[in-house]
Amino acid sequence: MSNDNELILNKGEQNEIKKIKVERKEGEPTSAFKSASWGALLVGVSAYLIGLFNSTMHLNEKGYYFAILILGLYAAVSLQKAVRDKDEGIPVTNIYYGISWIALIVSLSLMAIGLYNAGSMVLSQKGFYGMSFVLSLFAAITVQKNIRDTQRARERD
User: Fold this and answer.
1) What's the pLDDT at 15?
2) Among residues 64, 62, 69, which one has the least CA distance to residue 135?
3) Do 75 and 100 meet the contact criterion of CB atoms below 8 Å apart?
4) Would you kindly state where each structural domain of the chain is located, as residue ranges?
């Protein structure tokens, strides 16, 4: 590709190369980055949930780890939105901003404490849950950022 906004196509047997403009607004993430973000979120959450489903934990333990995942995803997206709003001059109350930080810290702490105290899990299982949890949180933040950047870029027109 010669630049970010051009796509080179090879037209079958004629071997003609044409450049066409790709519809992407200024400031909008590329479709590859958006796809990678959604893929990471899908892989992280799916791996975590499949691991939970296949584990030999009691149902109350599975519920604990599921609730931590949901809390963590919500807290991460909420904090990302609050930080971005503050940065862009959109009013955010200090209580909401603080609660977003607390919720994320609580979810990370509960995950760390839960895994540390999980005597029935081998170390590789603990690492698996920890890594899929962190991947899911990071991907959720990235997906939220991409959605917001795309919306913002399209509103400029």
Assistant:
1) 55
2) 69
3) yes
4) 29-155
